[in-house]
Amino acid sequence: MAATDHLVIFDTTLRDGEQSPGATMNKAEKLRIAKALEKLRVDVIEAGFAIASQGDFEAIKGIAESVKDSTICSLARALDKDIDRAAEAVRPAERGRIHTFIATSPIHMQHKLQMQPEQVVEQAVKAVKRARNHVDDVEFSCEDAGRSELDFLCRIIEAAIDAGARTINIPDTVGYAIPEQFGETIRQLMKRIPNADKAIFSVHCHNDLGLAVANSVAAVTNGARQVECTINGLGERAGNASLEEIVMAVRTRQDLFNIDTRIDTQHIVPASRLVSTITGFPVQPNKAIVGANAFAHESGIHQDGVLKHRETYEIMRAQDVGWHTNSLVLGKHSGRNAFRTRLLELGIKFETETELNEAFTRFKALADLKHEIFDEDLQAIASDTRQKEEVGPYDLVCMQVCSETGVIPKAILTMTIEDKEHTVEAEGSGPVDATFKAIESLVDSGCNLQLYSVNAITSGTDAQGEVTVRLERGGRIVNGVGADTDIIIASAKAYIEALNLITRGAVRQHPQSADV
User: Fold this and answer.
1) Pairing mode of beta strands 200-205, 226-229
2) Inter-axis angle of helices 80-90 and 117-134, to 10 degrees?
3) What 3-state class would DSSP assign to 437?
4) Residues 496-501: contacts with CB within 8 Å, 24+ apart?
5) Which end of the chain is more exposed for a tag (fewer CB within 10 A), N or C?
6) Is 484 annotated as a binding-site member?
7) Where are the domains of the chain?
8) Do 8-279 and 394-504 agree at the fold level?
9) What does the entry list as the binding residues for Mn(2+) (predicted)?
10) pLDDT, tens digit, for every residue of 326-367?
């Protein structure tokens, strides 16, 4: 495959995806996702925003030290302190990239930056040159390019390429673009900028109008050779372009695209499930490629057609994106070493033997309840296992719930608060409502419940239920996730985890202008 035929996949799940309200991940979780992305053969992993917090910096550095087969990138505003911090974070990587940006639309330059266009060009050039002093691989983004003036884009991009940028990103930051118009913008930029041949043109599309993938594909057909995307389309507001949809659109329609990616598509579904488990954002059943119904056929006509010839109603093979590839991996008779080995194969490594032992105990308990243990179950166990210092002040000890026709549901719950046990009883409109009211009668958190979601981790009536609870307090939003074969216990775990996250305070703050 010629170099010009390669579409670079730039995954920003760990940066832009994490900016989804409540999707904050810790270092260990980000590393697990990064290893999954490496297995997926993603070209560039944007591991975070180094200046945002010490935790973000350490996560990027840890990923740079561990991931060898992907370029590791950190975002940085066009500021010296951002660029230097990003450079320090990606320094251990075999291939490091600094992604620096500045706003270029009239509304952003006037109201956010309060700078004249000439000043914006000057700062962009300065930032690219400073980044090039640290790394050879520099990407420059024109924030809000979708609402920027074409002449100004040509001017600043030409200057950025002259300064040393080797990738130029055109973000539709607010999801404003329409495919035909956005594709034409890319074509015009590559045609009008004299040194356009010295850089790869990239796009980063948001999904506010549901057009992120369509806009990205339109850009590719007009010359873009990098697409910035996320697993499951995760991202702030309505999300980003979905990696799985971009990759499979290009792969499936080779009659229209003279390009391809290096993505190992059989790892798409496992990566999707991992991101969903860690972030607590379930994948909708009708989501393309990775949704539970993506390859399901209920209509009798469709079923008959598929049985006679698969391609009558299927344009992709389910196996090619990772469906039906997760067979039984462990059972109740499996030993600790087999358990550890399978976790390592899934990119899961515990920092201490104590954590591993706790996870193994959870695995054995689950194996007594479920005959078949799947990879998704192991991922849920790993996500549910926390170091003691990370747990927070609240923990569930035991609970009893009574739900009977014609009787008001009641929950009796014992939990620890700062290592002291408290028992409480509460009634509610249902068993989950009673459980949450019991918890709140003890903690009086002042939180607002914004989301309660239940998702089966695997198939079967004995599957673990994964519950996501989203709480808001004082403008801060967190997601708590709990898993158990008993959905009420999973609900209590999720609610308590969300309370612990709220109590620990903001672990990560993005500068406001980081909405690329």
Assistant:
1) parallel
2) 30
3) helix
4) 496/394, 496/395, 496/396, 496/415, 496/439, 497/469, 498/447, 498/469, 498/470, 498/471, 499/392, 499/394, 499/439, 499/443, 499/445, 499/447, 499/471, 500/391, 500/392, 500/393, 500/394, 501/24, 501/392
5) N
6) no
7) 8-279, 300-384, 394-504
8) no
9) 16, 204, 206, 240
10) 444 577 778 888 888 888 877 787 878 888 888 898 888 888
Token pair of 141 as six digits: 């983004």
Distances (CA, A) of 483 to 33, 183, 276, 464, 492: 19, 44, 13, 6, 10
> Is 462 annotated for ligand binding?
no
Residue 326 and residue 185: Cα distance in Å, rounded? 43
8 A C-beta contact, residue 394 and residue 372: no
> Binding residue per annotation — 206?
yes
- Summarised one tens digit per residue, pLDDT across range 210-224 is 999 999 999 999 999
State the CATH architecture for 394-504. Answer: 2-Layer Sandwich (3.30)
Q: What is the dihedral of CA 106, 112, 117, 121, to 10 degrees?
A: -120
C-alpha torsion 10→240→148→159, nearest 10: -10
Counting every residue, how long is the chain? 516
Give the pairing of strands 448-456 and 420-427: unpaired
Tell me the C-alpha to C-alpha distance, in Å, between residue 492 and each of 380, 413, 414.
16, 9, 11
Is 240 one of the annotated binding-site residues? Answer: yes
Please state, in angstroms and as integers, the Cα–Cα distance from residue 64 to each residue in 60, 72, 90, 116, 167, following that order: 6, 6, 6, 37, 20
Q: Which residues of the chain have pLDDT under 70?
A: 1-4, 296-315, 324-329, 386-391, 505-516
Q: Which two tokens stand for residue 395?
A: 């923990």
Closest CA to 70 of 250, 231, 262: 262
**What's the CATH architecture for 8-279?**
Alpha-Beta Barrel (3.20)
Contact 186, 171 (CB under 8 A): no
Position 65, amino acid: E
